[in-house]
## 1
Amino acid sequence: MTMTTHYIDITLLPDPEFSHAHLLGALVSKLHRALAQLQSSDIGISFPRHSLRPRTLGAVLRLHGSEAALQRLIAQPWLQGMRDHVQIADLAPVPPSAPHRQVVRRQFKTSAERLRRRRMQRKGETLEQAAAAIPDSVERRPELPFVQLRSASTGQSFCLFVAHGPTQATALQGGFSTYGLSQGASVPWF
């Protein structure tokens, strides 16, 4: 059972050398590595200034968890190299009457070409056979905000699409992934 009683806001500062998207990608990558190293499933994230129009996660990454879990994370050197690019607020208690919501990863099969290549490898089909089985219409254009990351295992760049679910009066129990995204648990929303 994950208790999200406290939070810490990390705000990206404007930077003339690096884009907002680049800094957010670096911040989320560093957080992911720290949560994986700690084997943590008790720290969640949200993006309180996210927007669908324009599509952005905003400049604030909010960490949610128990006081002890957040202190353990902040004690790690995971923000090394980012301290000049972010402002870290003090650990604070969550407002007692805050509603909750799940913040989840959404994955999309976005490229018909990539799906065809995979099918050709798996089934030994020609490009024409794969194209007949996988039409261009399978491509979906996600309209969710995302952060661009690079896989540590494959080196491939990918988009981590983030959806903020509907608000609800009570917390949902569960855990969080090593990206801090919901695996059943909700985070306070305020």
Note: The domain at 6-100+170-188 is CATH 3.30.70.2540 (Alpha-Beta Plaits).
## 2
Amino acid sequence: MAPSFLDILRVHTGLHARFLAHQVAVLERDFDTAHKLLVEYRRKLLDHMRDEEEALIPIYEREPPAPHGKVEFFVHEHRTMLESLDEIRDLLAAAAQTPEESSHAAILALLDRETSYKNFAEHHEMREERWLFPALDRLATAEEKERLIAQCMRT
């Protein structure tokens, strides 16, 4: 089977698993582990975003994008996701400082914000799956495809 940029969706699956591990740590009130996993998740997500913006989007720009697949949408969504993760980090820190007997509200506020983040990230990933990756499969040379898929899969 020929390589496809859709293979990069496996990176998203790995990121989802890492975020889930963070959420499980929150539920277990293991805030140190939750923080460590969130930092690791953000770092890996940022690496993935850099791959997309620096290596994939220049190829994507070889043809005019579809109305729902404009480059500025992808880049703006990346920034929004990173800002959301910063808010989540702050809510996590607040929950960690809340006494256990009154921490339910802080943990629920954190999980509510994380749900919003995950919904937004899912929307972003669907845009990539529908517009970015199929276009890259059409536009990239065989050498570019092989090299860039391998580069993006390291995350």
Note: The chain has one domain: 5-153.
## 3
Amino acid sequence: MSRYSLKDRMVRSIALRKGEVVMRADFEKMGSASQISRVLKELIAEGKIVRLGYGTYAKARPSTLSGKPVPRVTLEELAQEALGKLDVPVTLGRAQRAYVEGRTTQIPVRTTFNTGHRRISRKITVGISTVRYENNYSARA
């Protein structure tokens, strides 16, 4: 039996991870599902992590404006990392790609990713901002 509590082990595991996204599946071997759920709720309440979606969390820091916990990086970076961990290949959406390539000067408001020929139903949200998905099914040739 470990002399450290499950919470201590999970906090250490989160701190030692290189990326910003933490998946619930990363903790499966540490304890039962109910124990992990309890600790994740405690970490959210303490402001160490924020919930992005089902089984997906991000490392957090206090906001300079409100003091509430916010992710340390942008929603776009978090979504790319989370989808990468789920083995979903993504590219930038049409509007973001046009802006990056200099074909338009309009800054895209929404974070959108093209998932190729995959349909994604996972919702990734930070505050009121949600990731949207495009796929190649909508492009009729």
Note: The chain has two domains: 1-73, 74-141.
## 4
Amino acid sequence: MEIAARMSSKGQVTVPKAVRDALGIAEGDEVVFRVEGNRAVLARTPDFLTLAGTVKVPAALRNVAWDDVIRKTRATRAAKHA
């Protein structure tokens, strides 16, 4: 699907209804713009609460402080690239 829209003097663009419908976005929903080279991609932001329970967490990482998880992940990545 390719639909054109015009930018206002304030830098605003109305997302065409066909695009809103295709993405399932409505008033108040958040979207993200991702710049890829010389174009931008508009995407609906995921609802993180709907993702709860969909990712399996290894037993060793359950009930571990988030800072510790990040620290261990960074250390592992650094060791792989050293």
Note: The chain has three helices and two strands.
